[in-house]
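Troubleshooting entry. The earlier prediction with zinc ion gave an output that would not parse, so I re-checked the input for stray whitespace and re-submitted. Clean input:
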Amino acid sequence: MKCNLCESLETTFILSGSDSYMKVDKKKFDIYQCKNCKVTSLQPMPTQEELKKYYPSNYKVYTQDMSPNNTKSKNLTYFKNLIMKKLKMNNLERILERFSSKKINYLDYGCGNGKNIKQLSSKYSNWTFFGYDKFNKNIDNLKTKNVSFYSSNFLNNMPNDYFDVINLSSVIEHIIDPKNLILLLKKKLSKDGILIIKTPNFNSLSRKMFGQHWHNLDIPRHLHIFSDHNLEKILNELEFTKIKILYSRNSAVEVKSFYKLFNLKKRPKIHNIIVNLLNPFTLILSLLKLSSTFTIIVKKEV
Ligand SMILES: [Zn+2]
């Protein structure tokens, strides 16, 4: 099997599994790890056409809630959330704060329901926001004076060196050719522009513990699973410099993997309570760089 990131022919079989999250069908997919770049990928890589059916309309990007209808649980866990938010967001927010007084162009590539842009645009009214999500056709109504959304690819028509910040959250693991996408984004990124990539962590304790039951495997939608080390190396090769790597501090992936391991059909009603109770444990994991998800923040080298 050939690695489609570095083209090495030396790969090791890791596991095989089917869609256990959306349960579209029972087709088996194999995951291999490249001996050279260490990235794990589905082999053979499914085609874009094949993948379409694995994104049914109730897949999470459409359903992530951003309306205030879960206010009750929000109030209950308000202080916990506030503390977690402070811990989680501090570094990323501090980096974004550098741009607070500037007029910048911010792109959220794979913006889902536009939650990230919604939050930032209420904070930074002087920024211009662009959101792109090919699966979400219902975000057009969120357009405002300084916010535009696209569901068809608009990037090729945008000038080069245009965006100051590009956010790529839970996206590259879904892309057949992630290097190609990163290179396109680099072209569109301004001099000293920042790229923020959030993706599952193959080196996480939860991946090692839960194996094929690990929630972040998400077969066959996750085509590649990176680790902090190998993604940093790839980004270095593409001439980006690391600013920071942040490790997730939320235990949701661990908890959901646990449900999968015990074949729980439905989330228990106390799901949020369990997640909150376990968050101190995942806080320790983040300090050990063993979180289920990481965010790498890099700068474009001139
Ligand atoms: Zn490779």
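This one parsed fine. The chain has one domain: 79-300.
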